[in-house]
Each structure stands twice: as C-alpha cells, then as structure tokens.
Amino acid sequence: SEKISNITGKKTYLFRPPFGEVNEEVMQICELLDYKSIKWDVDSQDWKGIDSVHIIERVSKGVQPGSIVLFHANCNNIEEYLDSILNQLESKGYKMVNLSDLIYKENYKVNSSGVQREVINN
Q1: By the 8 A CB rule, do 69 and 63 touch?
Q2: In terms of CB atoms within 10 Å, which of 29, 79, 90, 116 comes out highest?
Q3: What is the helix, strand, coil percentage profile of the chain, to 5?
Q4: How far from chain centre, in Å, is Cα 20?
Q5: pLDDT tens for residues 33-90?
Q6: CA torsion angle for 53, 57, 59, 64 (degrees, to 10)?
Q7: Cα–Cα distance list, 83 to 10, 30, 79, 92, 122 (Å)
C-alpha cells in the first residue's frame, strides 16, 4: 500500500484477495485496515493459457451490468483478446469504469464469499 501511494500519490483502499480466498478473518482484517475486499464475478481464465477465442467467448457470455472481470497482466497472449473483448462489450452498450466508481461505498454488506450487495433501508 505504501509503495503504491508513493508512486501514485493516492492511498489504496481496495483489496483483491489472492485466488479470491475470502473468510471471516480476511474480512475482519480488511475492515480493521479500512480496506474494502473486492472480488470478480467473471473469470476470464486467461491464466490457464486457453486460446483467445475461448477467453473472448467466456467473458462475453458471463458479463452483465456491474460485472467485474478478472484478467491477468502477466499472460502471454493478452494483446490477442483484450482489445477485442473491450470493443465487443462497448458495442453492446457497456461502459468501462474504474473499480472505485463501480463499488458501493455506503449501504452495503459483503457476504462470506466477498460479494458486495446493496442494502436498501426502508
């Protein structure tokens, strides 16, 4: 967090647990450190080394409004599919936003799987 802050000048407050592993202890530590634990709902599975066509198909079928898609920057063929996926989603009316603009900041709960859900107060 300190290294990111030193480079960007911004404090981080989002945490993606490695491998998406979330439990009560992780959630409590995040809360103590004033972090929000964030997960994805669509895994591109690019880390498996599958071909670009299957990655594009998997992401396109899985995305819905508000989706968070997991990609890995260290995959060998990311340049083969990322532009295609982004263009395809934008042509369907999706807009790419910063994660911090997408998540709930108030009136939400995070379930034991790390999924954020809006809480509507009546």
Answers
A1: yes
A2: 116
A3: 40, 10, 45
A4: 10
A5: 988 888 888 999 998 989 999 999 999 999 998 899 999 888 878 888 999 999 999 9
A6: 160
A7: 27, 33, 7, 14, 42
Pairing of strands 36-37, 42-43: unpaired
Residue in 61, 22, 57, 60 with CA at minimum distance from that of residue 39? 22
Q: How far apart are CA 45 and CA 40, in angstroms?
A: 12
pTM, two decimals, is 0.78
Cα 114 to Cα 117: distance, rounded to the nearest angstrom: 10
